Amino acid sequence: MENKEILTESISDISKDDFNTALIIDNKICFVIEESLYRVRMPNQGEQAFAESKRNLAQLEYLKQPGCITQKQLIQQLKESGVLDVKKLEENKEVLLKKLKQYWFMLATKDSDNADKIVEYTQFIVTTQDALKEISLEIATTLSPCLESRLEKFFVEFITNLCTEKKENDSWIPVWKTMDEFNKADSELTNKAVANMTWLLLNRR
Question: Distance (Å, rounded) from C-alpha 47 to C-alpha 57?
């Protein structure tokens, strides 16, 4: 599963629900694929420790590989080569986020009789959200070869493998027994599970 594919799926799925944290119930998110009900859940302490141990082992393996590069080194190389100024993109992202918050407040406090302004503010919010998603995706995919991004991808996929379950009769059954099964599974299911796990981890309670 490619990093860009996972990130695109995550952003697409999250934006469909307008970043709705109400979907998270008891630290779980349910979703449906081909009329089957699945869920991802937060890992327990043992699973968390197990995943962190596996991530540490993966880090040792990645460091042995030729061309292993840290995020700081990659950002510097990208800037020096003129490919991309990541720090500038991050600054632009912060500016857009501030404007977005302003327009959310303006929309929330605008009199409902002023239809033109409501349309104007709503359109700005939609356009800005799209721009933010593009910036986030560009940064994430550009930095995907770095050590930190590879480890984050590994960790999220490993947790997803451990904590994705399918409803069968009245029970929740683990979908995969091993990472090998996860890696060979249908991409629609794995991408959907990773997207929801990403959102769950970002909003852990």
Answer: 15
Ranges 43-52, 81-90, 132-141, 180-189: which has the least confidence: 132-141
* Choice among 19-23, 117-121, 153-157 with the minimum mean pLDDT: 19-23
Domain count of the chain? 1
Q: What does the pLDDT average to over 127-138?
A: 89
Domain that holds residue 180: 3-202
Quote the CA–CA distance of 149 and 117 in Å, as a whole number.
41
Per-residue exposure over 3-26, b if at least 16 CB sit within 10 Å of its own CB, e if not: beebbbbbbebbeeeeeeeebbee
